[in-house]
Amino acid sequence: MKNQPASSTPVTIPLVVLTVHRNGTITVTRDGTVLPPPAHSTWRRSSLPEIIEAASERRTVPVWVEVHETDGTSFTDLFPAQPEPRHHEPAATPKPRHAAPDPQLTEMRAEGFVPGEDIAIAPITGHIDAGKDGTVQALIDPTEHPGVTEVVLVGRVSGTLAVRRLR
Which superkingdom (predicted)? Predict the structure, then answer.
């Protein structure tokens, strides 16, 4: 059996480090180089999808992500590259005759969250950041979640839970 020559280029996966600050902003580096946020903005917890997209070159390369929280804890995860989509003709879809009605949003407020922390909405319809005073304001469109009468707001850092009834 013939041995294959070893490649002279080592296989590496870029390391993306997210450092969370007490004010809820995040500093992002890729292999030690700062990854700046879009112009006139800051990276926040809710920016994670955009951070991964930018750091992984639009998901063309895998990246190791390491998150350092303000309480000293950290975690890591691997975000694999996404395969290129196959190019095929999409099936024709009929155009709606009428535009969808405007959503009727329900507002919920709760206290006890850490300023700037990521708040989960369960059923998880999205994420929002707590305000500077630790309060949160969530808007839910009940038409997107038929049959749901209550939601739980979960602070990802503080562990604060708030149950709110949809009006």
Answer: Bacteria
- Smallest CA-to-CA distance from 84 within 61, 109, 50, 65 is with 61
Closest CA to 66 of 12, 27, 98, 110: 27
Rounded CA gap, 42 and 151, in Å?
Answer: 29
Tokens encoding 166: 């949809």
CB of 135 closer than 8 Å to CB of 110: yes
pLDDT in tens, 30-89: 999 999 998 888 898 888 888 988 898 888 888 999 999 999 999 888 888 877 655 555
**3-state DSSP percent of the chain in helix, strand and coil, to 5:** 10, 35, 55
